[in-house]
Protein 1
Amino acid sequence: MILSSTAAHTWRAFWSLRKRGATDAWPHLAIASMLALLAWAALCLLGLAGVITVNVPDSSFLHRLLLGMLLLFLVIAWSMLGVARLAEALLPQALLEKLSPVRDWRAAALVSLLLLAGLMLGNLLGSALLALTYPDSEFFASSALRRQLRVLQFLPFLGLVAALFWRGRLQRQAMQAQAAEAQLRLLQAQIEPHFLFNTLANIESLLDADPPRARAMLEAFSDHLRAGMGQLRVQETTLDAELAMAANYLRLLQIRMGERLRFAVEADADARAALLPPLLLQPLVENAIRHGLEPKLAGGEVRIVAAVEGGRLRVQVLDDGLGADAPPAAKGAGTALANIRARLQHRYGERASLHLLHPLHAGGTGATIELPYQAKP
């Protein structure tokens, strides 16, 4: 299971543009070589099927032809990988964040140009290498420039294939993002009525017994609904708005739970200006209350900590509730957390993550969201 998960992660990382360490070189070189072998095998199958015909004077020429084409395909694959990794090293991190995952036609065009540059370089180097390896063969000793011109003849076809590929991928990504957002709104619509009726019942019970407390709960509830409706109408928000909504929610529950609930929010101006999808934070806060503090007789504290480090935003929701001692029904991330992971995956790919830590060193549970930092202008 661990091996398959690592292989899947390496495969997804191979297709992304980002700063890399030295440990990524050999796995990615192996993937590029595998893709070259698959392309070479497909070419051989097309030859066997008669789709591609080559005049073969004898068996020795066929043997050299197959080995030569395999060498050419490997050099092209390695060159495309090298150009991509060189671009990763030279381009600034901010630009790489926009290019991977590809979200618009400009990023798709730039990535396609990088791949084309690798293809042209690989074809040039591979042709020169074939001419040196088989100097007595007229087929392989032909000019490398002539081979480049042959590749250029296929540029319109390659451009059409690339355009169709990126068009389909961008449409699929847009549909996946819309499905994730629709699932979020459906989940929120299922949760809100239950929360609404419970809160109204609490307010009604306090109207006679404790009118000032009922008024405070009603005001907090109004602030929470106002913030929640605003978040549901936007595709992108700021962490400051998310923190305000979470604080309203916690203030409302603090009135109901009294001294059993304490909370703190720690975030500087840079973190508060960060852009992110709406309603990422709310489910984490709700889980901290529902699974950690409400079942605990003494209650506890919820801390929301946000910081920007190395071009990335890290947001943590920490509680000192039951943690590992929570009832079995309360354990696990649940549907809401799975939805958060899906939304992060669709929007940021491998560059964003959600991790759960339970129990913490001081008891309780922690949830950490990390994603690329982009500030509101």
Note: The two ends are 43 Å apart (CA to CA).
Protein 2
Amino acid sequence: MNSKKILYFAFLLFIISCKSEKEKFAAQPISPEVIVENAVNQFEKSILKDKIDSVFSKYHFNGSVAVLKGENMLYQKSEGFQNFKDKAKLDSNSVFAIASISKQFTAVLILLQEDQVQLNTEDKVSKYLKGFEKNGFENISIKNLLNHTSGISDSGNGLLSKPGEKFHYSNKGYRLLGEIIEKVSGKSYDENALELFKKVGMTNSSTANLSQGNHLAGAFLGNSKKFQEIVNMPKRLANKEISVPAGGILTTVSDLHLWNTKLYGGQILKPETLKKMTEKSADRNHPVFGKMEYGFGIMINTAPRSYFHSGYVKGAPSLNIYYPETKTSVIILSNIANEAIGKNAIFNPHKEIKKITDSAQNKVVELRTEMLKPLSSL
């Protein structure tokens, strides 16, 4: 759809909204900004429904997708099975393993300790953990762990590069951050995480260690006709190879939206601390999503600006996106993956939906600007 057609459609929605609002509120003045926002939201809903529905159909996508702006649900769909063995269906309350999306929770727990003056992200790790006193490890800072520039290898005991020099994605680095959180707080990582969930209002979230299995979307390999269950879920996420701080949080689409809204809305961290988290401190070349900036536990795109992170443990590909300019969350969670087609292809639905929502964000910003221009002179 070209820009003229977009603007024409949005204008029609604008007129309809004006009429309906006037009928509803008669003598009450109506903010032009509110009417424009309503019109833009209706337009965005129509785009998202057609395009994301087509992704579900194209890939026979088994999972939950939600696009939310504040309390306004722009798109939501859950399709397929929570458990392929008993055919229990997915719904909006299904709890998914979010894998590496968990890292942003660990980053926030570290930054909360900084807000409470229990540590500084510029501190050396050796101040808190043993075994970091020599062989280059003494130069690793907490910041290096947060943005994956520590040089720590997940598979060996040495350093892949000097601290601060290169980006090397490291689950081990986030496991170490979890140990630092426990050291300075005097409480387990699980206790810290549950306190954070409670603070945010994430009532359907837990860690792998504390999960009761309620509404759990178990992880599977293959497809709906020929599948293999990943056993010992979610407990296996607490194993040393993954670890809870790096990939062991379980949650729902609604809880993740609540998290996005409160985190980026400044209700969890101090403004200066949130800024540190969301500004570029490293560059990453992601094997699926390409080149991007990296903050603390989050990836950053600039056009349109978004904070996001993918996650993958066997059978559970996920993606969480937040667009700060429009305060919109896009959450894509699944519980089955056909590894035979390759990891990049596993994320094809996620990549296509991200492309759709990136484009929608650009159009929404353009529409809002164009529609508000004539109203600014009234």
Note: The first strand starts at residue 63 and ends at 69.
